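Hi C.,

You asked whether I'd gotten around to modeling the 64-residue construct. I have! Everything is below, sequence then structure, no commentary in between.
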Amino acid sequence: MWNRKIKIDRSHSRAITDEIGERLRMAHSLVSPELPPRIQRQLDQLRELDREESPSIVPSIHEF
C-alpha cells in the first residue's frame, strides 16, 4: 500500500465515486438482477417519502 496523499478537488472526487458506484451497479446487475425483497421495500419507502411534501424551514413573511 502506498503512503501517498493525493489531493483532488471536490468535482474530481465526486466523479470518481460516481464511476465506482456505476461499476458496482453494473457488476451487481450481472450477478443478481433483482434486489432482496427487504431492500426493495426500503427503497420503495424512500421513494414514497421523497414524493411527500416537506414542511418549509424558512419562516413565512406573515410570521414577522
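If it helps when you're writing up: Residues 38 and 44 are 10 Å apart (CA to CA).

Thanks,
B.
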